[in-house]
Amino acid sequence: MALEQDIAKLIEASNDLTTVVDNKIVDIDAKVEQSKTKVDGYINQVNNYINSARDKQSHFRLTKNQALIPNDEGTFPKYWSGGFVKSAKVIETVTTGVEPEQRSALAREFLQAINSDHKYFANSFKIWELEYYPNRRGDNSHVFSYLMYQYFRFSSYTTIAAVVKHVKGLVPSKFWCHGLKAGEPAKLCGLNYGVSSTRNHYSHCHPYVEGGEGKPETETGIIQVALPAVVTGDVDLSTGQWGQFPYLGDADQNAYD
Q1: Within a 10 A sphere around the Cβ of 21, how many other Cβ atoms?
Q2: Phi and psi dihedrals of 74, rounded to 5?
Q3: How far is the CA of 244 from the CAs of 10, 61, 64, 134, 257, in angstroms?
Q4: Closest Cα to residue 242, out of 164, 168, 182, 181?
Q5: CATH, range 59-232
Q6: Is the dihedral of CA 42, 46, 51, 52 positive or negative?
Q7: pTM of the model
Q8: Residue ranges per structural domain of the chain
Q9: Cβ neighbours of residue 75 under 8 Å, at least 6 residues apart?
Q10: How far is CA 175 from the centre of its chain?
C-alpha cells in the first residue's frame, strides 16, 4: 500500500513537472516570437532608411554625350570610341513636348523603359542603331569583341546603364548591356560597381560580344541604344530610375549633353 502511494506521488510530481516545463516552453516561445517581431521591425526600419537614403543620393555623370549627339561627320556619337562597331546610324530623335500618341512606337518603347512616356521629359535624345562584329576579326577571331565605350575612373561607387534593344546576332553583355536579352522590347540595362580599394583604377564601359570557343561566328549583330552613361552612386535600375544626368568633367562641356 505504501509503495502504491509513493508511486502515485511520483507520477503526480512528474505530471506537475511536465506542466511546469510545458508552460515554460510556451512562455519562452512567446518571448522568442516577441523578440523576432522586434528584430524584424528593426530590420524593416534599417531597410527603409537604406532605401530612402538610396533614393536621396546625388548622381553625376562621368561620361560625355549621354544624348548621343552625332560627331561632325554624323557617323558616330561624339566623344564615344567605336570598339568593334562596323557601322552606326541615328534611327530616331526622341523629342520632348510631343504628345505620346504622336510619337513612333519605337520612341515610346524607349521612353517607357525609363518611366518617361509623357509629353514632356528632361530633354530630347537620339536612338542609334549599332552594327557590330561578333568577334575580333583576323587571327584573333575567336576573341571577344566589344562595342562603343568611354574611359572612366573608379573614384566612387558607380552605376553604368543605357536603354537598349537587341535586333539580331549575338547578344552583348556587361556594362550598359548587362541584362539584355533577345526578343524583348527596349529595356534599361546596366549594373552597379563597387569601389573598395580600387579608387585609383579606371575602366572602359564597353559591353562584350561573347562568342563561343568553337567555330567563330560570322554574322554581325545589331542593337539599338539610347542614353548610355556612367554615373556616380547607386541608381536603382530595377525600377527604371534612369535619366539624363549632369556631367562632371571638362569646364567647356555642356552639363546636359
Answers
A1: 10
A2: 75, 20
A3: 81, 9, 11, 30, 8
A4: 164
A5: 2.60.120
A6: positive
A7: 0.79
A8: 1-56, 59-232
A9: 88
A10: 9
